[in-house]
Amino acid sequence: MTHLEQAVIGxxxxxxxxxxxxxxxxxxxxxCNGNRTVEEACAQKKIDISAVxxxxxxxxxxxxxxxxDYNTWEPDVLAIHIVDRHHAYVANQIPVLQAYxxxxxxxxxxxxxxxxxxxxxxxxxxxxxxxxxxxxxxxLFPYIRQMVVARENGTSAAPAHFxxxxxxxxxxxxxxxxxxxxxxxxxQLSGDYTVPPDGCNTYRVTYALLKEFQDDLxxxxxxxNNILFPKAADLEIGFRPAGK
Length: 244
Description:
This protein is mainly alpha-helical and 244 residues long. Helix content is 71%, strand content 0%. Its main location: cytoplasm.
C-alpha cells in the first residue's frame, strides 16, 4: 500500500492545489468530504485506485520551469513553445476556473460579493485571451516562421498583408496591457488571493489556480513583449533594402 493511498484528500489539496484537478477528474469530492483517504474515496466510488494514485504521482512530480535562457532561442521555436506551453495552459485552465468561480459565486457570493465581480472579470479575460491567442496563432506566428525559413534559405520574405510586424505587435501588446490590468483588479479584489476564514477547500483551490494563471500570464506576456516581438522586428528589418 502506497503513501498516496493513505493520504487524506483534503490535506493533499491543501498541500498542493494541483491535486484538485485529479480528484475533479474522478468526481471525488475534495471539499466537503475531504477528510477521507484516497483509498476510502476510491472504494466508495468503485474507482481503480491505481489510476488515481498514478495521476496524483504525476501531478506531484511536476516541477516549474526554471533557468531557461529564452533569449538564445530562435523566434519561431519560441513561438511554438508559447503556443504549446502557454496557449495550451490558458485554453485548458479557462473552463476549470470558470466552473470553480461559478460554484464559488453561487455558494459564497452572498457573504463575499467580490467573488461575483472576480468571476465577471475572469470571464471577460477568458473571452479576450481566446481571441488574442487565435490572432497570434493564425496571423503573427506563421509570419514569424515564414521569415525564419526565408532567412535560412537566403530568400526574401513574402510581404505580409498587414504591412509590417509592427502593426500586429502593437495590437498584441495593447491587449496584453488590458489583461494585465484585469488581473490586477482580480488580485486586488481577492486580497492578493487570500482565502477568508470561512473559505472551504474549493475556495483555496480556486484562488491558488487564479494566482497560478496570473503568474503564467506574466511569463507568457514577458516572453512575447520582451523577447519574441523584438526578435521578430529585428528579423523583418533584415529583409528591408538598405536605407529603408
